[in-house]
């Protein structure tokens, strides 16, 4: 039988698994009686661990959330994962958590066994981060927490927002999802004033508190990640094009990245591809990669460019 202190740590480790444990299951794992399990649970409670218990045939024990954060027991892989995550967060895109992350990492590394500390140190020492081509914007950790809570609680979110062109206005929306893409964070929300879904960059949001009233949940408009990809790309396009592709919409959708364009059915054997890019030459490359017949509907400059490229390719093949 384990000594009392070792048994308590083992019991705590089992209770940190997100499930309900019956007294009999815990007794079997610890090789003790159910009475000893009950006594050990009371000891944990006296130490400040919120162990919840329910009676009955389906009752059991579960570690709940308490007023204070009790010590956690991590296995080797969990400890390394947390250390790597804290190190990454210290150099991430969320402002205000760099120092906190390093403080937490220092505490963790101080108590890591030597074998694990060597693994974490080796990974940090021999890893080189490639800097981003352009410095990405940072978002405030408090703003992320506020938006996340509003999404969870289904509360209207009021904020001042700076548009892509630098103008500002005030929004009152129903928040649904936060999307993290590289160093940027986006909010997908329904805007009742515009009766449509909108995507907002979080680094351009200045929340107004308190949050608004609760709202009834709506069905999300498809894949929110694809929506953000397309919305972000389209906002930066200098050139836009509409192309009729002579193939079913589902065939074209399988060959096109959502960030490149959207596909609109136009009968059983054709569809319209709405796309764009900074350069018309880029659109021409994407259309070539489709490996499908198509007709340019707009703009005429794209059709002219394709004629020029076609003549160039014919000369190259001659």
Automatic annotation (TrEMBL):
UniProt keyword Transcription, yes or no: yes
Listed GO MF terms: DNA binding; DNA-binding transcription factor activity
Keyword set, alphabetical order: DNA-binding, Transcription, Transcription regulation
Domain called HTH deoR-type: residue spans: 4-59
UniProt cross-references to InterPro entries, sorted A to Z: CBASS_pafABC_assoc_protein, DeoR_HTH, HTH_11, PafC-like, Tscrpt_reg_HTH_DeoR_CS, WCX_dom, WH-like_DNA-bd_sf, WH_DNA-bd_sf
PANTHER family hit by this protein: PROTEIN PAFB, PTHR34580
Full protein name: Predicted DNA-binding transcriptional regulator YafY, contains an HTH and WYL domains
Organism: Micromonospora chaiyaphumensis
Upper classification of the organism: Bacteria, Bacillati, Actinomycetota, Actinomycetes, Micromonosporales
């Amino acid at each position: 039988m384990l000594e009392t202190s070792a048994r308590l740590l083992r019991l705590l480790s089992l209770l940190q698994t997100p499930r309900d444990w019956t007294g009999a299951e815990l007794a079997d794992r610890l090789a003790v009686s159910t009475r000893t399990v009950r006594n050990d649970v009371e000891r944990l409670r006296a130490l400040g661990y919120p162990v919840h218990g329910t009676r009955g045939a389906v009752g059991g024990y579960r570690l709940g959330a308490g007023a204070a954060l009790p010590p956690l027991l991590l296995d080797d892989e969990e400890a390394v994962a947390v250390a790597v995550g804290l190190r990454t967060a210290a150099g991430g895109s969320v402002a205000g958590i760099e120092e906190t992350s390093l403080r937490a990492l220092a505490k963790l590394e101080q108590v890591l066994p030597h074998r694990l500390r060597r693994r974490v140190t080796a990974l940090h020492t021999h890893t080189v981060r490639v800097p981003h081509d352009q410095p990405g914007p940072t978002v405030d950790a408090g703003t992320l927490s506020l938006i996340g809570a509003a999404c969870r609680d289904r509360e209207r979110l009021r904020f001042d927002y700076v548009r892509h062109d630098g103008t500002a206005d005030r929004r009152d929306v129903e928040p649904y999802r936060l999307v993290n893409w590289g160093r940027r964070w986006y909010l997908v929300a329904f805007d009742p004033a515009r009766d449509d879904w909108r995507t907002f960059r979080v680094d351009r949001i200045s929340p107004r508190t308190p949050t608004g009233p609760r709202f009834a949940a709506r069905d999300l408009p498809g894949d929110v990640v694809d929506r953000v990809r397309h919305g972000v790309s389209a906002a930066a396009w200098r050139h836009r094009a509409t192309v009729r592709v002579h193939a079913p919409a589902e065939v074209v959708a399988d060959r096109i990245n959502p960030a490149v364009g959207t596909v609109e059915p136009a009968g059983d054997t054709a569809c319209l591809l709405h796309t764009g890019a900074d350069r018309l030459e880029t659109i021409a490359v994407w259309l070539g990669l489709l490996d499908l017949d198509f007709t340019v509907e707009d703009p005429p400059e794209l059709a002219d460019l394709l004629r020029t490229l076609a003549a160039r390719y014919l000369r190259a093949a001659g």
